[in-house]
Amino acid sequence: xxxxxxxxxxxxxxxxxxxxxYTEAEVGDLVGVVATDAAARYDVPAxxxxxxxxxxxxxxxxxxxxxxxxxxxx
Length: 74
Prior knowledge:
Belongs to the sulfur carrier protein TusA family. The protein is α+β, with helices and mostly antiparallel strands.
């Protein structure tokens, strides 16, 4: 899994980072977006719908920060 550290970044920066770097993952692999911005909870799933990627869900990074999981499908 590739983990993107977007702590402290406000919308739309976590989504810009996801869009810029998700292709570093192999098709089928996960990309985790670790973000403190509450908007990421809505923005990451919306980005997945628009880009045809799979939103897997939300869990927590080691420090308890929300991590939003995306599976690269193409």
